[in-house]
Write a structure and sequence with these properties.
alpha/beta; Rossmann fold; 7-stranded mixed β-sheet; two-stranded antiparallel ribbon; 9 helices; about 40% helix; about 20% strand; globular; binds S-adenosylmethionine
Length: about 250
């Protein structure tokens, strides 16, 4: 742990604020700031928190959903119990975890999906960004069909290749899509949040028969990058991700 990291960490006002307010993470303020700007969550909502560990966003979701609301949190890492939150441990991209969630929901639609999902970072920005992009697409493909008409969706994304295509794909499904960087995101951070409001009753494309992941993958290919799914499947530590290569003939 470097001295610089320690000093920045100690001085971080959001960390101090989170500690004194009883939030488990400074990230809690990122969701609070998204909510202040876009009014995503309403009292009584059923809310899904994807990548919820250690629980800051879930705590905020419980406050916003109120006594009539329901909050379900999922993460690969187990969380300490959070009052008012039903916690699932598992990989959201894994069929078994998805089945557990469906069972818990028992047909009840979700009103708001909040996802701060982030892969374990390797420090190699291009690779981390590609893995995160893939995760975001997989989360959207699985969870958007569970979201009620009029529902909202917010996800962390890392700036870089493929983000424009994710925004375009989101616009097929929501009436309002915007990128937003809460002040609680560190100045140096390349993270931003994709905020989608008012899910449309049907996607704008008639009989949409492609996934968001396919849409983003073909956009990356068109832009001169090819994705190699064989290599991405062989990533260890359960890491998934678009593997980007500059197309040789460009
Ligand atoms: C930045 S943290 C979330 C912090 C949280 N919003 C909070 O306020 O406490 C990102 C989380 O995403 C989780 N994650 C990454 N990949 C995942 C996956 N495939 N399925 C479920 N959770 C995942 C990580 O384990 C990590 O806890």
């Amino acid at each position: 742990m470097s001295k610089r990291w320690y000093n920045e960490h100690r001085r971080d006002p959001w960390r101090r604020k989170a500690k004194s307010s009883g939030y488990r993470s400074r990230s809690a303020y990122k969701l609070i700031q998204c909510q202040e700007k876009f009014n995503l969550i309403r009292k009584g909502d059923t809310i899904l928190d994807v990548g919820c560990h250690p629980g800051g966003w879930s705590q905020v979701a419980v406050e916003l959903g109120g006594d009539e609301g329901r909050v379900i949190g999922i993460d690969i890492k187990p969380c300490e119990p959070i009052q008012g939150v039903e916690l699932l441990v598992g990989d959201i991209t894994d069929f078994g975890t998805q089945e557990k969630l469906m069972k818990l929901l028992n047909g009840e639609p979700i009103n708001s999906i909040v996802s701060d999902i982030s892969p374990g970072l390797t420090g190699q920005y291009e690779m981390d960004q590609a893995i995160s992009l893939d995760l975001v697409c997989l989360v959207m493909d699985f969870s958007l069909p569970l979201l009620n008409k009029g529902g909202s969706f917010v996800t962390k994304v890392f700036q870089g290749r493929g983000i424009e295509a994710v925004v375009e794909a989101a616009k097929l499904n929501f009436s309002k899509v915007q990128r937003f960087s809460p002040v609680a995101s560190r100045n140096s951070s390349s993270e931003t949040y994709l905020v989608c409001k008012n899910k449309l009753p049907k996607p704008r494309v008639k009989d949409m028969d492609f996934s968001i992941r396919d849409f983003v993958e073909s956009s990356l290919t068109e832009d001169g990058f090819v994705t190699d799914s064989t290599e991405s499947e062989s990533l260890d530590d359960g890491k998934k991700g678009f593997t980007l290569h500059r197309a040789r003939d460009r």
